[in-house]
Design goal:
This protein is α+β, with helices and mostly antiparallel strands. It has one domain: Glutaredoxin (3-Layer(aba) Sandwich), CATH 3.40.30.10. It is built from three helices and four strands. It has a four-stranded mixed β-sheet, sandwiched between helices. Helix 1 links the parallel strand 1 and strand 2. The longest helix has 13 residues. InterPro entries: Glutaredoxin, Thioredoxin-like_sf.
Length: 89
């Protein structure tokens, strides 16, 4: 059984600094995730573009049908996402 809000999908591009920070944060917090490369997945690129205006301009996380853009990947933004995820919001 997965904890809290289940598996998180992280939409981004390989080598993206903010994407790597989000993935490292999730791993450190024990949050299961999978990475979706928006350069290879057209539907994923559309998801990101709808939320941030460009398919490669931000990190989008998705869990249990919810999607959020994480901008700036500051500790405050990451912890706010984690709290929302844990609450199942």
């Amino acid at each position: 059984m997965l904890p809290y809000g289940g598996m998180v999908r992280v939409y981004g591009v390989p080598g993206c600094g903010p994407c790597e920070i989000v993935k490292m944060f999730l791993a450190q917090k024990g949050v299961p995730y999978t990475f979706v490369n928006v350069r290879e997945d057209l539907e994923a690129a559309k998801v990101v573009e709808a939320l941030v205006g460009s398919p490669t301009a931000g990190v989008v996380v998705e869990w249990e049908g919810k999607r959020r853009a994480i901008r700036g990947v500051s500790p405050a933004a990451l912890n706010a996402f984690l709290e929302e995820y844990r609450q199942g919001a």
